Each structure stands twice: as structure tokens, then as C-alpha cells.
Batch of 2 targets.
Target 1
Amino acid sequence: MSSFLDPYLDDSHRVFRELCRRFAEEQLAPHAEAWEEAGSFPRELYAQAADAGVLAPTWPEALGGGGGDTFHGVIAGEELLRGESTGVVVGLGSLQIALPPILHLGTPEQHRRFIVPVLAGEQIAALAITEPGTGSDVAAVRTRAEPDGDGDGYRITGSKTFITSGVRADLVVVLARTGDDPHGGLTFFVVERGMAGFEVSRALRKTGWWASDTAELHFDGVQVPASHRLGDEGSGFSALMRNFEGERLMLAINGTALAALSLEHALAYAHQREAFGRPLKKLQVIRHKLAEMQTQVASAQTLTYAVADRMRRGEPCISEVALAKNHASLVARDVCWEAVQIFGGMGYMRETVVERFARDARLLPIGGGTQEIMNEIICRFGLGL
Amino acid sequence: MKIGICAKVTADTDARLSPSADGGSFEFSGKSVVGPYDMFAVEEAVQTKEKHGGDTVVFTVGAESDVLSQLRGSVLALGVDKAVIVEDPALANADALGVARALAKAIEAEGVDLVFCGKQAIDDDNVQVPAMIAGLLGWAQVSRVTAFAVDGTSFTATRAMDGGIKQVVSGNLPVLITAERGLNTPRYAKLPAIMKAKKKPTERRDLAALGLSAEAVAPKVSTSAYGSPPERPSGKIIEGDTDTVVAELVRLLREEAKVL
């Protein structure tokens, strides 16, 4: 699985891979089925992951992160999935999308106050962009942050939905409207659990990612001090666009890893399961299916790693990361589906990982920007259309 | 205090060992690791340094290209300060005494007060090198240690004996300790430490640099051949109703296995 990655790695990545794999196999996999069925995993897992050094490998060491590069993040994304629950990976990973606006727009005091406890695994962070009436069209966000007449703070009013880790988040990074300009009127705020008027209106049930909680949030005139505003008023949209690149790479990695691991499971099953007096691996129809799955996995890995390398070098790659996400999403869809097919009836049972991964993969062409929005980005920034 | 560790990069516990085609050496498939008993030694060295201060240095014999990656990832990333790799063509076929001579000289050159080793390597299970190093250095040695403490220039160690009996011994530094399972729990390497390990000093020394000749490490024991154990016969599945199965099992245990 790692051969296409090797040119980008040094020893620190290889050692870190072993560390992540050990954590996933020892601390996650034995509990994955129970956590998925329960729709949640223990809150203590955040601190455990932080303590093991797998929660925030790419974050600055000064804030409690690992100080690694993009590929340490790639490796964590791949290896933690060996814990057999995408829900756990994205639940632990919600900080990767929630904290960048604080890092890029926030003051050192905001870094210390909001980022440090999350990287230590003591608090949970969530990002709130999507609204009941606003998905891909981010510029149509309606949640408003209006000046609070009593001081220099704001009152936030509106609703957000599909918020990963939103049910139990201690802090939510909320995109709200401070002006009427569709793009230039958006600003990020940090809303903390317990603030008056902030409530989790609903825990949502999903096709996949069961172990991660997903929420609908309601803000009813939530009073937030100015110290909770990130950056200047109107700085939200450009920060969000920057955020999307990291999120989309993470989803592309998730897609390649879902596909690669589903192939591993299918391969193992083809060795063990017999049909017509022979192991499945001897049947040409299965052999060729596996060969095609391997080809797809290799293509997604090659593309995703090449884009990750560009991101590591700090090169702009909005179009490239969009096509990597789209390609990995389609590969995950096809390979996870075929893995279920190779498992036959067993692949339809909830006790198999391939069944879980096939459901999980359905989110990839939707979350972090839909497949169609990615195509628009590729048209505009890649093809000049 | 300067604390040393001797570590061997060897086949992982789940790697398959097999004799080479000509029987003159053995090969393994799978990844290489720093041996698990050596990892107890590494952890104890780091804990001792954390309590008492000082420097830590790991010693190994092998080709730098084969061992450096593992030393950085598994030893330097856990907090050990430096690696000394003894590499020389004359050591390629060295026996335990040759390896011990090379390591003893390297330890002497670093001015170490205390050395931790794993109780044995997990590939050849030879167990001899630590005792030979202590002998060559004229040091005390305590083997199969499950608890260790140092106080100034003296130490106390608990040894595991047969039947679960524990023996507590004490003495003065310098001493060489071999680590038994249970001495400690090796920690996870953290990513910042893994990153820092990339920049930690590593030194490669050949025999000449240690003041040793090729003759000094020439093997006194040479391997004639490696061989695999005979393949185990496949198991038997007895079929039929309970009475038939029990009767047949008793017959086989009596007549073939001859255990009844």
C-alpha cells in the first residue's frame, strides 16, 4: 500500500507510520464495531490519541502538535483507518478543519486559549459552515453576527447543520455574516459550549461514519465577546477557501485509504474463501476484479500523494486537490463496492469491515465540497473555462 | 553519568527465519526491528537519564545502511542522545566474542559508567555478548534484571530466577545490566522526538578507529550449517458418531502417539 508513497518519505515518516499503526491496531480496531453500533466513541480517546502523538501530527510543536509535515498527516489519515472506523478517524480529525481558521486568523492569545486544549485532547472542536438552506453555495450563509448593543461583542443568530463532532464539541468555529457582501461579509467566530442561546438542536443519523457524532446547531442571539472573533470582519471567506484545500486533501487520503484497505480485506478473503472447490483467488473472474481494484487504488494513491507533495511545498493547488478528491472518491466508491461483491453475502453483513467502508465511502463525493463543485473548480482554475 | 545501551537490529518477532539455500547463513522475510529485549534496555537507560541526568549513547555492530533507520526511529526518537555504529568488513562473520570485543572497545572509548543490554537477541538467541562485554571490560554484570535503581555510584537490581523467585543484588558502578521482560514498559516515540532524532549525532567506527585488528575479532567458532526443523505431519480429523470418534481417538493416542 505504501510503495507509491515511498519517494516522498524519510525515516521519520516510516517510524511515524509504525506508531500510528500500533495505535490503530491496539487502541481502535478492537472496539470499532462496538463504537460504530453505539454511534459514538469514548471522549477519553482524544486525550489518548494526543498522548500517543497521533492526534495532531502536522500542528506546530509550540501549540502541542507534532511539528510534522503534510505527509505525517497523510500517514496518520491512512493508518488510523486501520482502526476500522471512519467515524472515529473523522471524529478525532474534526480539529483539522475547525482549528485552521484560528491558527491563520487568530492572535497568539486565541491560539493559546482555543488551540492548545484541543491539541492536548482535552477539548473537542468542530467547524460550522453548512446551514439548513446553504450547502455548496457558501456565499449564501445566513447566520448573522450583529454588533451587541451593550458592548464591543456580537450576537450570533442562525442554524448550522451536518456539523461533524458538533454534538459534544466544546468549541465551534462558526462562519457568520457580519456584512451584506456575499463573500466579503463573512467572518469566523468561536462559540463555546455553555454560552447562552447556543444549543445542539439535533443529533443526526447518517448512512456511514456512524461512530462520529453529527449535529444540527442553533444559535439564538448567542452573545460572544470580540475576543472570540477571528481576524478582521470580512476575513472569513478567504480563510474558508484556504481551509477547504486541507479538508479536501484529507478526504482524498480517506478515499485512497478506504479503497486500499477494502482491497486488503478482499484479497485476504479471496485466499481463505472457497467456491467451486477452489479458493476465490484461483477464479479468473475474482483475480481480474482484484487486479482492476489494485489498478484503481494505485491511480488514486499516485495522484493524491503528488498533490500532497505540492501542498507540502506550499504551492497553490486548488484545482489539483479538487481533482484528487474527486478521483479518490470515485475509486473508493468502486473499490469498496467491489470488495463487498467479493465477500458476497458476508459483505452485506454489518460485522464485516468492507460493508462499513462501502457505506462510509458514500460521503466522499458530497462532503468538503461536492463532486460537482469540484468539477466547477477544475473547470475554472484548471481548464480556464 | 554516561549511560550506554547495546542494541541489535534484528528480524521482527513475526518475521520468518529460514536457512539460506546453501545452509551457510540464515535469511528472514519481514521487517527488521531493534530487538524487544533491547527496547527494555533503551527505556531503562532513558528513565535513568531522566532521573539522574547525563548522556545516553547506543552502540551496535552492523552496516550503517541496514541499521541507522531503525536506530533513529526506535532508539534516538525515544530520547537516546547519540548512536555509535561499529562497521567493518571483518565483523561480517564475527562470532559472539568478536562482536563483544568491538562493542567493549567502543564502550571504553565513550567513557561509559553503566550499560544496559537486552538479555538476548531474538534471532540467534545466543545470549553471550553482554556477559562477554562485561568480562572484557572487567565490570560487574547482572543478568535478567526486572527492576533497577542507581544511587550515586552504587546500584540495586532485582533478578528474575527460576520458579518466580526474585534475587536482589547490589554493587558499584560500572556495571552491565541485561534487561528481562517486565523491567519497564517502552514508551511510544512522539513525532517531535522522531523529527529531532533525524538531527542527532551518529558516528561510524571501523576496527582501526577502535584500535582493534581483524585478527582480534576473527571467529573462534564457525557455523557449519543452518538447518530447518523437520516439517510437522499434518493433523488428523476423525469423523463419525461420538462412540466411533472416541474409540478411534483412544486407539490413535495409544498406538500412534503412544501417550496412553
Note: Residues 236-272 of chain A form the longest helix (37 residues).
Target 2
Amino acid sequence: MDSTPRAASRVVVPQRHAFAGPLPLQSGARLVDYELAVETYGTLNADRSNAVLICHALNASHHVAGIHLLDDGREEAGWWDNMVGPGKPVDTDRFFVIGVNNPGSCFGSTGPASIQATTGRPYGAAFPVVTVEDWVDAQARLADALGIARFAAVMGGSLGGMQALAWSTRYPERVAHCISIASTSKLSAQNIAFNDVARQAILTDPDFHGGDFYAHGVVPRNGLRVARMIGHITYLSDDDMAEKFGRAMKVDDLAFGYGAEFEIESYLRYQGDKFSDYFDANSYLLITKALDYFDPAAAHGGSLTQALAGARASFLIVSFSTDWRFAPARSREVVKALLDNRHPVTYAEIDAPHGHDAFLLDDARYHRLVAAYFDRIHAGLAS
Amino acid sequence: MSAPATALRPELAAIAAWIAPGSSVLDLGCGDGSLLAWLQREKGCRCVGVEIDDAKVLACARQGVEVIQQNLEDGLALFSDASFDTVLQLETLQMVVHTEGILRELGRVGRESIVSFPNFAHWTHRLAILRGRMPVSKSLPYEWYDTPNLRFATFADFMQLARKSGFTLRDRFALRGGQVVRVLPNLFGNVAVFRLAGQAPGAEPVVSG
């Protein structure tokens, strides 16, 4: 497991782990012969107790920290590089940190764009719907392969925070600390509504071809673009948008047309275009469905307290005051269920202006708190 | 990170003596978590703090104290009935708007509550009023125009409110310079301390040391 940075460079080389045994999925389907793209940072200690699993959200990947090379040779920093690395809150000088691309995604692990061995063609619409719990099972198999019986921490933001939460009950003996940031135990009707608008944009794009657009040599670019635009709106706060864009115009005079005249239009279109260049439309559908389906309380008569009863971890829950996608009230529901179970929990509500995206940004209060929590985890390893 | 092995301040030691080893403690307005860190370490208590201030929440995390960041004015909806053996509200009651509301919440969540606040009837305060000025003292260190304190009450006032809110008085004393005062506490104590049995439905009496 050696994808540690090359000497004198922070470039991290991803590994690929192949799994021959089929992965049973919640839907009843199975994922056969799949691969996971993985990056690791730091060194696993002698008693294998310092491993930290980082779970990614909708459009992220195993490229958590350090620098990775893009296909065109350009260098790009990991999506949580401000959080994970040497001397950072999740300090890779002390912890062995694992980033893994979830199956169904499109950054190297087996997903809809991968070639299906039985047909020799991309899975496309044939790729099974995967759930948060399925991802957690896949991650647990990866942990087995890496020889990690128990994680010092499983951590994630947003959809990643759902995976951390699922770990705490699905594999209670394998998680010492669960860190769930800007997350929720279930999507609201409003959240699902936004997701479905995004999916409809993709599904109704003539270039979607029922999910088998690969064979047609096209990409449902317009659908992906609109999906990303609507998603992006939910990641920012109203105040943040007002501050960044307001009613600022790109043009001096009104064109009385439908081009990008306001800065916000230009920004969202740019984000949409960029996204449609690299993200797979089927992955977007799958992953938003995984978000919609997640609801651990459902199997317990709606009681989140009962759903979390079996957890054995200590918890750090963090929310951001202006996050209206997964608002602080959603985190407080999780905190209440943990308190009802007498599980150790620390809860911080960070007063930050940046909405849902705040979990990815460099905020001193937020990072100091996570650093303090990881100091505590580290102190626990030594004893 | 374990807390430094410091001794408790004398006024906290008197309060800590009421808390049974191994019991559960919720500290409202827990500050940097020093008392809870001590109770965890020395008495093996299961401790949770509530604090609004970012720096203090961080200090709690650094001491290894579980802390919930919230405004006490929002009530204690996160905490179930009789879910803690003891709820502490130490020298913060005078800073909340809904005094009676939060007091009822203490009684709901805790089997027992310990409340302290600056005693406005301390003789030095009485003297200041006689002189026609609002008191500024060790327990009330703020000028009237620049104080986080919203409520001013006396030892005697609080007894009345506690009874009205359905609490049973278990014990009380006043503190003067960190020392326990049991003689004429309303006159000689600058901090009033009350130990109250909660009015929570189904609350059972706790055994305490």
C-alpha cells in the first residue's frame, strides 16, 4: 500500500484494487469483478491502529490530498487538501489516511462508464443502483485488503458524512471515531426535489440515449450542465451569492436577450460546462439516488435513536450556520439521537457565510476544532 | 488530549463534592470544560457540556470534554427527560433572558440541578446601593452599562422561584472568596449555590457523595 508522495514531491500515485468476489448490493443486484481507485497518505503504524478513512461526496474522488496528475499532465490538488496532509488537521505525519473512489462514480473505480466484462461494452444503464450502505461495504472490503481491522476515524462531509454515519452502525467494531460534517441522516423533500430536477435534466437530454450514450459517441452535456447548475445553487448561501455576484453584470448595456448578462449566470454556466467535461451522467444519476435513499431510521420505524443504538464510536458532528442544503437542524437531529443513546458526541455549529460549501473551505475555527479532535484521537492511540 | 492534572478551584470543589462518582453530568455554559474534565478524570463521570462561544468549545475539545455548541436561550430540546443525574448551571443563569424557562428545562433534563449566580444581596452590594450606586464587585465585576448579566437576584429571591418552578430544595450555601458560607448566606455570600431535586416526570432520587 505504497502511494506515499514521491520523494521531494507531493504527487500521489493512485493504486487500483481489484475485487474478484461479487459485492452484494442493497437492491439485490451484485457488482461482479470490480476495481476501486485508492490513494493513501502517511504510514500505517505497527499495530495498524492509525488508519483514517475519508469518504467523498457527490463529485469528489479518491484524490483527497496532495497533488495528482490529470490526464493531460496538469497537476491538481486533492479536494480536501486543506484538511488532510502533513501538519494539517488530519495530520498525515501521524495518521495513515485513505481516500477511495466509490463504485458507481467516474474517477477510476468501476462505474457506468467502465467496460463490463460480460459484454465488452460500457455498463451504461446496466450499472446497478448503489446505496450509501453498499459503498460502506465496498470500503470495508478495501479495509480488509489493506489489513485494517479498525479505523481510528471514518470521516466525511455531506454525502461523505452519511457514509461515516453508516459505518458507525454497519461496522460498529471497526470505527473508533465517526466524523460527520455538513451532513444529515436523511434528505428532505426539498433536497430530493432538487435532485430530481437535476436527474430530469439528464434523463430528458436527447443525447442521454437511455444511459447508453457511450455507444453513440456523445455525452448528455446539456443535461449535466443544468444538473450541475441547480446543484451548485444549493451549495451556496443567499448571502454568499449576493456578496460574490449581487446583480453585477457582464455587459454594459442590457441586451434584451438570453445570453449570460448577469455575473451569476456566467458563473453557473461556466461551472456547468466544466462539470459536463469530466463528470459521467450515469454516475450523477446513481449518486443522487444514493443520497435520496439514505435514511437509516427508516428500518427502525423512523427512530434515528434506535438506528444509532448499536454504534460504538465517539462522534464529532459539525454543521455550518448558513448551510441550507443540510442545515444545522439536520445535524442536531443526529446529535439528539446520539445523546439519547449516551454515545459520546461533540457538536460544533460553525458560524460561516459560505453555505454548504463551507465544509470544503479553509475556516480557522472549523479546522482548529477538527485538529483538536484529531489530537484527542491520536492521544487515544498511544494509550 | 488529557486535561492537565490541576486541582479544582475551592468554590468548584464544594459543588463537585455533591456529584456522585460515575454519575452523568450536563454542564450548561461549561466554559473551557475544566470542571467536566476534572469530573471525568477524578470521578469517572459521563460528562457533556453546552457552550455557545467558539473559543470555549475549542478549549473543551482540547481538554477531551464532549461539548455541544448551542445557545441556551434555545432551550434543551436536544436532551431527553431525566437523561442526566446532575445538570449544572454555574454562574450563567443571570445571563439568560428566559430564566424561569431554562430553570424548568434543568428540572426536566436533570434528576438533580445545581445552580449558582452572583448574590445581589451580599452586604457590599447592599452598601453600594445605600450609597446610591450599582455594585461593582468580585462577583459582579461589570459596570451597569456594560455587563453580560441580564438578571439580578438575591439568595432569598431564588429560593422563591425554585419552589415556584417545582423544585425541592436539597441544599444551599453561599460562597465568599471561594469559601462556603452557611451563616446568613444572603448577607455574607457573594455567590449563591443551590442544590435542587428536579421535577422531571419519573425522576428518581440520586445517591450522591
Note: The CA atoms of residues 315 and 345 of chain A lie 5 Å apart.
